[in-house]
Amino acid sequence: MQKIIIASDHGGYNLKNQIINHLKETDAEVEDYGCYNTESCDYPLYAQKVADVVSKNPDIKGILVCGTGIGMSIAANRYKNVRASHCTDTFSARMTRMHNDSNILCLGERITGAGLALDIVDIWLNTAFEGGRHKKRIDMI
Q1: Angle CA(19)–CA(52)–CA(111) in degrees, nearest 5?
Q2: Is 22 a catalytic residue?
Q3: What is the pLDDT of residues 53-85, one digit of tens each?
Q4: Strands, E, within 9-140: which ranges?
Q5: Of 93, 88, 134, nearest to 109 (Cα)?
Q6: Dist. CA 73–CA 95, nearest whole Å
Q7: How far apart are CA 14 and CA 59, in angstroms?
Q8: Residue 66 falls in the annotated catalytic set
Q9: Taking the chain, what is the end-to-end CA distance rounded to the nearest angstrom?
């Protein structure tokens, strides 16, 4: 069973909940790290919660959602061993797993519709890292 931790700020709260409901239909174990309502809050605090866990646990993947996905990506990528990828399409989701071994997916509720976001999540979670020459490049980061 794959463990996924997820968090959002107020701008990503609704999409986060849709993703959680979607993932509950799979064999994934999902933990919600907040936020828990649409009141204004600070996205770096939620990025920190997820990035801190993912950086220390290579078997855990994270998903972060804010208004655009950009702020969460910037904040999460400050942590060692985190490769947070902001994705707005399925091709990027596939390639960031295959070539970059992305371990946190960042999405934007205000720029990506729920149907596409769920497709991105599924592809990202079900695509394996290719390793090989890509592993060498990851090690250079």
Answers
A1: 35
A2: no
A3: 999 999 999 999 999 999 999 999 999 999 999
A4: 29-32, 60-66, 84-86, 104-108
A5: 88
A6: 16
A7: 26
A8: yes
A9: 29
pLDDT at 132: 86
CATH number of the 3-140 domain: 3.40.1400.10
List the catalytic residue out of 10, 35, 41, 66: 66
Distance CA 61, CA 50 (A): 9
Query: Taking the domains of the chain in order of start, what are their residue ranges?
Result: 3-140
Cβ atoms of 7 and 34 closer than 8 Å? yes
Contact call for residues 141 and 80 (beta carbons, < 8 A): no
Q: What is the pLDDT of residue 43?
A: 98
Rounded distance, CA 60 to CA 43, Å? 20
- Residue 120, classified by CB atoms within 10 Å of its CB into exposed (0-12), middle (13-18) or buried (19+), is buried
The pLDDT value given to residue 122: 97
**Amino acid letter, residue 99:** H
Confirm whether pTM is higher than 0.85: yes
Q: Which residue, chain included where needed, has tokens 């079900």?
A: 126
Q: What is the amino acid identity at position 119?
A: D
Asked if residues 66 and 108 have their Cβ atoms less than 8 Å apart, the reply is: yes
Among candidate residues 90, 113, 115, the one with its CA nearest the CA of residue 105: 90
